Amino acid sequence: MSQTAPLLANRRLGSLDALRGLTIAAMLLVNNPGSWSHIYPPLEHAAW
To answer: Which residues contact 39 (CB under 8 A, 6 or more apart)?
Structure first.
């Protein structure tokens, strides 16, 4: 049995972790922009 197989299974992609972190940060920004009177227009909810 080769010992390289367990090492490859434990690898993580740093770029994927960074993308997930940025996604969470963006979700927090959209849900809590700070002051609702100074919100970036594309982040506003649509008035249906």
So the answer is: 33
Contact of 43 with 33, CB cutoff 8 Å: yes
Query: Which tens digits make up the pLDDT trace of 1-48?
Result: 556 655 556 678 889 999 999 999 988 887 776 777 777 787 777 788
Tell me the C-alpha distance between 22 and 29, whole Å: 10
Using the Cα atoms of residue 24, residue 19, residue 33 and residue 46 in order, give the sign of their dihedral.
Answer: negative
Question: Comparing C-alpha atoms, which of 40, 43, 22 is closest to residue 31?
Answer: 43
DSSP state of 15: H
End-to-end alpha-carbon separation of the chain, Å? 61
